[in-house]
Amino acid sequence: MLSHIKRYIPADIEVLYLALGGSHLYGTADEYSDTDIWGICRCKEVFHFSTASDNTPNTNDDIDILLWPEEEFVRRLRAGDIKAIDLLFSYTCPSCVLLGSADYIKAFMPYLSWHLSSVQSYIYEELKGYPVYGSMLWKIMKTIEIFSIYNGGVPLWDIVSRVEIPLDTYTYEVSGKKRIGISVYNKKIQDVSLDKALDVLRNLYMSRLRADFRYKNMMHAIRAIGEFSSYRLFSEVSFPLPEREILLKIKHDYYPWHELVDRINVFLGRSCL
Q: pTM here?
């Protein structure tokens, strides 16, 4: 495999460490999984190469290569970047290491800074289309709950001026008088009744929920929680992941959606549903 991979790496890049990444590292690869190769190199900038076409899904024949200069790898470890952290702990799966030694990669351990905030950011990025605590869909859902208490015939601006909501608001003027509107997904809602605003919010909620929901993204969020918990307990993440069978079930849509959202919310320290 190593000789095959090197065909795609320019000769002027000195590869210092190379390992299987992604699903092959996690233990969640299936018949459709491509092969991710992550590594560290002596080069001026990040190197990325993929055999996959931009217009088609990855297949098990595709190879995706990502190489970081040592300085960039250190920067990402300090920032709590989970992909860099996974590469750092790839030595726990000896069969996944294609080039380099455990001693080499372990030398980067002092640069690791992994905090809850970086895991939360990763979860929010993966779950943009889920109503987990703090996400845009959660904010819409909570705003709908708040608005539903009030008389639907009153102007939206009147309610928003008196009631705190999780969605972003902005001020505008009508005949010299300041009013307040709502901004959500770059859409402005203003000068409508509360009933009309509720209709807009409900339609936005359902359309984004259907469009954005992906079980693979949920699998990655659950995986991040498991990795972070393992690191907090043992100061290490072991690959392949112990919970890989559960992750595969999530990836293949074998878990109820609400159970997964509840699990995320428990980690985030809130019960939102």
A: 0.72
